[in-house]
Amino acid sequence: MNISSSFNISASALTAQRLRMDVISSNVANAESTRASVVNGQAVPYRRKMVVLSPNESSFSELLQNQMSGQSTAAGVKVSAIKDDQSAFKPVYNPTHPDADAKGYVYMPNVDIAKEMIDMISATRSYEANVTALNASKSMVMKALEIGK
């Protein structure tokens, strides 16, 4: 493992967490969007999006074998997909709403603001932890350079 590996790991995590925060922000912004699209003349609400993270390596054993053999690998994390949450929309009775169906129900997005705030706190803390790890790596490299003087 070389010195820049820790930088690459932290950078991949920072990128992934930033995208996760962007997706969460989009979910919060569209929490009341009852007309994200129209299908067959019927308004379809916004559907919550979720980020799926996966390691850059396919398995731990593959990573271990590559490290033991001295091969340089791109460790870290990546966004493997952004998926739609398939949970049901929330029906709200409001017959005066322009997107109400024949029974007077408006289907609201499946976005729960409390859940999104918890996810945002989690993503922010992960981002901060990776910034701390990056700064620690940078500090170690700087100390090693000072020793060499």
UniProtKB/TrEMBL annotation:
Q: Which UniProt keywords apply?
A: Bacterial flagellum, Cell projection, Cilium, Flagellum
Q: Does the keyword Nuclease apply?
A: no
Location(s), subcellular: Bacterial flagellum basal body
An individual GO BP term: bacterial-type flagellum-dependent swarming motility
- Source domain of life: Bacteria
Q: Name one GO cellular component term.
A: bacterial-type flagellum basal body, rod
Q: Which NCBIfam families match?
A: FlgC (TIGR01395)
Q: What does the annotation say about its assembly with partners?
A: The basal body constitutes a major portion of the flagellar organelle and consists of four rings (L,P,S, and M) mounted on a central rod. The rod consists of about 26 subunits of FlgG in the distal portion, and FlgB, FlgC and FlgF are thought to build up the proximal portion of the rod with about 6 subunits each.
Task: Identify its protein family.
Answer: Belongs to the flagella basal body rod proteins family.
- The protein's name is Flagellar basal-body rod protein FlgC
**Species this chain originates from:** Paenibacillus pini JCM 16418
